[in-house]
Amino acid sequence: MNGSGPSSGPSLSNLSAVRQSLPPSPKVARLPNPSLTNGVRTNGATPANGSLEKEHHIWLVTGPAGCGKSTVAKYLANSLHWPYIEGDEYHPKANVDKMSAGIPLTDADRWDWLTALRDSSIHELDQGHDGVVLTCSALKRKYRDVIRVAPYFTPNLRLHFIYLDAPEDLLLQRVLARKNHYMGANMVHSQFDILEPPTSDEVDVISIDVSRPADSVMAEALDRVLNTIHETKANLQK
Ligand SMILES: Nc1ncnc2c1ncn2[C@@H]1O[C@H](COP(=O)(O)OP(=O)(O)OP(=O)(O)O)[C@@H](O)[C@H]1O
Ligand SMILES: O=C(O)[C@H](O)[C@@H](O)[C@H](O)[C@H](O)CO
């Protein structure tokens, strides 16, 4: 059910090395993280050697249909050697049938999907990964808030959103040009109808203008992810 991300990868102890090795980087075997069990840390204490416990990261790539979530998320996951969860694959058949028929989902249609994505992300970290990247439209603030519950139960878990920002007419063109996808161009307007773009108080959100070529969007996204992780580590060591 999960996306095509690799099952193991290097730690992020040396971010500049990660930057320089892209793409591609070799897969490195990792030991499972013994301090995470079913998404809940069993030992939050500072290790005996005095170093701080390692941070774990969930990155959600968000935005309306056609904004480039899958494109960006796959690139991040491959670059960082993190698992990739394709949110579209977690919709139950009833949701896919609705969207295929041109009927927008309701809040009620989305709750179980959102919690499944949250649980699956934590499950990936539980397997010993430093981070996980997933796609999720997360169109409303309350949908983002469902995912924001994840760190309540998992100290040292950092949750981040990347919001891919583009005007409706541009996404309409991209969806029109795309073939073999259940989400038709007739659905794009309904996505913008309910969209609540992240506001400035949502400090866990990075917004990226995606009305430019995909290569440039992916490069910016990776740079901002690496910088954020670097800042998190630096703040912890203060
Ligand atoms: N920055 C970009 N410039 C031009 N085309 C792009 C860009 N990013 C993605 N695309 C193209 O736009 C289409 C939609 O991209 P993608 O499938 O990644 O979006 P998505 O947000 O995952 O869509 P959905 O939520 O509907 O699955 C694809 O054909 C993709 O190749
Ligand atoms: O919340 C939603 O309405 C859905 O997640 C949609 O956004 C689609 O799954 C996605 O865009 C695929 O095209």
TrEMBL record:
Pfam families: AAA_18 (PF13238). One of its GO terms (cellular component) is cytoplasm. Keywords: ATP-binding, Hydrolase, Kinase, Nucleotide-binding, Transferase. GO terms for molecular function: ATP binding; gluconokinase activity; hydrolase activity. It comes from the Eukaryota. Residues 1-49 are annotated as: Disordered. InterPro entries: P-loop_NTPase (IPR027417), Therm_gnt_kin (IPR006001). Residues 1-16 have a biased composition (Low complexity). CDD domains: GntK. It catalyses: D-gluconate + ATP = 6-phospho-D-gluconate + ADP + H(+). Residues 34-49 have a biased composition (Polar residues). Pathway: Carbohydrate acid metabolism; D-gluconate degradation. One of its GO terms (biological process) is carbohydrate metabolic process. This is Gluconokinase. It comes from Lasiosphaeris hirsuta.
